[in-house]
Structures are given as C-alpha cells and as structure tokens.
Amino acid sequence: MPAEIAPPALTAIPNVGPAIARKLLRLDIRGVEDLRSCDPDELFERLCAMDGRRHDPCLLDTFTAAVAYADGGPARPWWEFSRERKAAAERG
Fold first, then answer.
1. What pLDDT score does 3 carry?
2. Measured in whole angstroms, how far is the alpha carbon of residue 27 from the centre of its chain?
3. Which domains, ranges and CATH numbers included, belong to the chain?
4. What is the pLDDT of residues 11-54, one digit of tens each?
5. What's residue 4's pLDDT?
6. Is 76 exposed, middle or buried (CB count within 10 Å of its CB: 0-12, 13-18, 19+)?
7. Count of beta carbons in the 10 Å neighbourhood of residue 25
8. How many degrees, rounded to 5, is the angle at CA 13 between CA 7 and CA 19?
9. Where are the alpha helices (DSSP H) in 1-92?
10. CB atoms < 10 A from the CB of 3, how many?
C-alpha cells in the first residue's frame, strides 16, 4: 500500500493517520469495529513480534487511544495515554 493511501475507515479514528493505519492493517484491523474490545498491549506486542523489534511505546499509547475511542470513549490525544501509562509505571 503506498505511503499516502490508507483506508478512510481507519484514518477517521482519532490519532490514526496513514502510518498507524498501515500498522493496524497488518494486525487485521480494518475499521473501528475491529478495534472494539481489543487489548492494546496485545496489539502492540504482536506488531513488535511481527517486526522483530521493539516499537516506541508511544505506538502503544496510540493503540490505547484508538481502542478507547472504539469502545465508546471520547476522542482524546494519544499523549494523554502516555502520561497515564508513565504514571501507572511510577506507582508500580
């Protein structure tokens, strides 16, 4: 899929641009309905395994934001989930 093309069903999800949409497609996510009730950690770990490398944790936060939206939450920027993830890690 060319870099500039991504399915509108994915890019309509807040925080999902063409690059994230291509990653979701590789995980067999085609639209918001496919994200409902997904485990963002599992999506992230699967993609890391597929690529044989650890992705930036901000990608996990983006997946978390997309799943939260798909599950009926308000559109929130992915970096809010970064703050929450870091705060949870500090609490242990």
1. 47
2. 10
3. 8-91 (1.10.150)
4. 999 999 999 999 999 999 999 999 999 999 999 999 999 999 99
5. 55
6. middle
7. 14
8. 55
9. 8-11, 18-26, 32-35, 40-51, 57-70, 78-91
10. 8
